[in-house]
Design a protein that fits this description.
mainly beta, 9-stranded parallel β-sheet, 18 strands
Length: about 190
């Protein structure tokens, strides 16, 4: 795609794989009926949808912005977060801010890593839950960022009593959370 091009629609019965090698991926819709959606961009992954519809639908989503090693890459923006509708979990990585909004239920977080910015995760119709399986190579953190803002719905929680959402906020950063029900959030290392 050209640097200012818009990817209107990519639909598949099985998985969707899209790689933008020259700049930002301005996405209207990428959806899979029974599989995953894997998006990689040299630049940012942005919400190109002007009608507040779902940008990414499928089982799991892998969102990787910044393959060009430019330190200005984001996923979504504060004005236009990337809208998700997933039955599974999300993995997202960008150098700067990550703005994700699960529009139809629980946001299951496998891993969200903002290397030099903030993470804004929202699920107004559900909860924000841990879906990360710890391994020796990747032991704990579900969300890593300088600042983290978590917003769950009136009937939603953040984490559960048996499986808290594990975060890594920078020492100079902050955590802000809001949910109608309980919030179970831990930071295993650091302050």
């Amino acid at each position: 795609l050209a640097p200012t091009a818009l990817l209107e629609e990519a639909n598949a019965e099985l998985s969707v794989y899209i790689s933008e090698v020259n700049g930002a991926l301005n996405l209207v819709t990428a959806s899979s009926a029974t599989g995953d959606v894997d998006l990689t961009a040299a630049g940012s992954i942005l919400n190109g949808n002007k009608f507040n519809d779902v940008n990414v639908a499928g089982v799991d989503a892998i969102l990787m912005a910044g393959a060009d090693a430019d330190h200005t890459n984001t996923i979504g923006t504060s004005a236009a977060p990337l809208d998700l509708e997933l039955s599974g979990s999300v993995v997202a990585q960008a150098y700067l801010n990550i703005n994700l909004d699960e529009v139809s239920g629980d946001l299951l977080v496998n891993e969200v890593d903002s290397l030099g910015g903030s993470a804004f995760l929202t699920s107004m119709l559900g909860s924000i839950l841990d879906d990360h399986t710890p391994t020796t190579a990747d032991p704990v953190d579900d969300v890593t960022a300088l600042n983290i803002m978590l917003t769950a719905g009136l009937l939603g929680s953040i984490g559960t009593a048996l499986d808290s959402l594990q975060i890594d906020v920078a020492e100079t950063g902050s955590l802000t959370s809001s949910s109608g029900e309980n919030a179970y959030i831990t930071q295993p290392v650091g302050d």
